[in-house]
Amino acid sequence: RLDGRGYPDHLVGEQISIEARLLAIADSFDAMTSARAYRPAAPVAEALAELKRCRGTQFDPAFVDLFVRLIEEEGEVLMIRQRVAQAKVAPALP
Fold first, then answer.
1. Read out DSSP for 41-91?
2. CA dist 50 to 18, 88, 93, Å?
3. Sign for the pseudo-dihedral over CA of 73, 88, 26, 45
4. Which end of the chain has fewer CB atoms surrounding its CB within 10 Å, N or C?
């Protein structure tokens, strides 16, 4: 957590590595938008709203802004590219 309430070291802000700050956002987004045995996947808009809500406390605000912008502006293109890439490596169905 960016605000120092994270476990175990209670690091604050830039004491947390860039990689960890980025991964926290991506991992949280993935967790919110993935179906679990105990709940359905949240819609992308809801997950983005939660990232924005936690901006500055749990997540690095600059990285949240960038992530949200990328998803809002490029998300559909990225999903299409992913589907195409998966289709190319998927075995042909009989």
1. PPPHHHHHHHHHHTBTTTB-HHHHHHHHHHHHHHHHHHHHHHHHHHHHHSP
2. 21, 34, 39
3. positive
4. C
* Residue whose C-alpha is closest to residue 45's, from 17, 68, 18, 22: 68
Q: Cis before residue 8, ω within 30 degrees of 0?
A: yes
Residue 84 near residue 62, CB atoms below 8 Å: no
pTM of the model as a whole:
0.77
Tokens read off for 53: 């809500």
Which residues face 55 on adjacent strands?
59
Instruction: Report d(CA 82, CA 80) in Å as an integer.
Output: 5
